[in-house]
Amino acid sequence: MPSPFNVTEFIFLGFSSSQQVQRVCFVIFLLMYAATVLGNFLLILTVLSSASLGSPMYFFLSCLSLVEICYSSTTVPKLISDLLAERKSISVGGCMAQLFLMHFFAGIEIFLLTVMAYDRYVAICKPLHYTTIMNRQVCAVLVGTASAGGFVHSIAKVLLIFQLPFCGPNVIDHYFCDVLPLLKLACSDSFLIGLLTVANEGTLSVVSFVVLLASYVVILLHLRTRSSEGRRKALSTCPSHITVVTLFFAPCVFIYLRPSATLPADKLVAVFYTVITPLLNPVIYSLRNAEVKKAVKNLWIRTVKLARDRG
User: Fold this and answer.
1) Which end of the chain has fewer CB atoms < 10 Å from its terminal CB, N or C?
2) Structural domain range at position 73
């Protein structure tokens, strides 16, 4: 069997072969990445500095924002730098690290979204026991479990890819290292590895989606006996979560829950879940949540006042 280390680096074809398109994309993606980091960091800072956002829901939201920064940072900075580079290369070690980190943070995000759905279930269906059930220790354990789940999910993919020999060619028709493009470069039959990869991703996505769906079905059934005003108040925080879940799971289903083959649209879909979704999440949670908007406003007022006092 050829050695997996016959190839020492991989070459990305990148997002586009047109220099003009690459320069335009450089400006757009740079601004979007900066907005992603700043927006999610602002949300984290707002939650940490606001006493009114001390509930578990906002703790999980701040964790999600941190994950979004890390998730976007595994691919977008490399994409931005490669847009101005003639030779877009990455070492085998760097490729495996990027693959691991990307799926590690994606796995954490899936588990966190599931945890957030459970949090909404407890808050709406068991309001009198909410603070007891979702205490600080439980929240910390849930976030730790999400991290452990992300690690297992990601390391399984990397170990599967390590079973494949790469002896050339080494050109990846993408702008980052992912499972499906790497399977195309393997020197041996990768059908079984591709099948196991789909099973890995499929199991995680399907189980998480079923838990999310079950949570909201139970919530809706529980709210049948409440008044329309009570239902509106109870569900006020749910649309944001449902929107984020949809934005995250839809591209994942398109990319990973299908036979191991690459499609021309994969790059555009990848831009959606690596660049656009991490940018939209803080916007969605801020615009649709009165408490967050009020806390951001108060944080801005305090910051301006502090700056004036120091001046």
Assistant:
1) C
2) 9-298
